[in-house]
Amino acid sequence: MDWNTYLDAIATDTKRLHDIALSNPDLDLETCPGWTVTDVVAHLGRIHRRTLDLVNEGLTDRFPDPVDAPERDVVAWAGAAARDMVSALAGIDPTTPLYTWHTSNQTAGFWMRRMAHETAIHRLDAEIAVGDIVPFEREFAADCVAEVLEVLLTGCPPWGTWIPFDKVVYLACTDVEASWMLELGAFEGTSPTSGRHYEELPGMEFVTGVDDPDVVITGSAYSLASWIWGRGSLATLDIDGDLAVAMLFRSAAADAT
């Protein structure tokens, strides 16, 4: 997708979320149990502000220190954070080196994409709560699916051991040319950087040449994206094959997102 599309989406979705927050500040979010609309505004504001600090400081080896949201005027504070972050990202080349947790992509472009999807998902949280949902545009929705698979859920680090489950899932959008074939599994091992030990952490790897996947899941790009992110219903999708494998995939995605 075009980089400006990500930045425009951040601005648009932030405004939608904040408009809901101004009218319904204490409304509970069924998709984020224990949170209100104001809570998700503060959460997103902290993420935007920290990303802004990352860009402004040009960090390539670590994240900046976390920031706290104010107790009052949260929407105004979060709005300024979003505007400043979009402005900062718009002012640098997407290939500019910046720290990320994803070792294969250490660029500003990573954050343009990541922040666009993060903002869209939390805008959707608020819209679900008020019952007025604006579905994602189909190419954007397909990219939301792709990011979960490519960034949040995929692969085994070099220091880990991959454990395949021999269960293959095929996902396909019905309204845009996008599809993915993946094998479910898990990895375990100890990170040499943090010392943290992972045991059977769910994940997936892309595969090719599988003629008979265990389950085929098809639907609109928005239906796939909202389901994978835990904001949509399986009833909006067509399932052909082993439902248990579909739910195993959804569980792995839930852990990742």
From TrEMBL:
UniProt-listed InterPro entries: DinB/YfiT-like, Maleyloyr_isom, MDMPI_C-term_domain, MDMPI_metal-binding
Domain called MDMPI C-terminal: residue spans: 139-246
One Pfam match: MDMPI_N
Record-level GO cellular component terms: plasma membrane
Record-annotated Mycothiol-dependent maleylpyruvate isomerase metal-binding domain positions: 24-126
GO MF terms, alphabetically ordered: metal ion binding
Name of the protein in its database record: Mycothiol-dependent maleylpyruvate isomerase metal-binding domain-containing protein
Listed NCBIfam families: maleylpyruvate isomerase family mycothiol-dependent enzyme
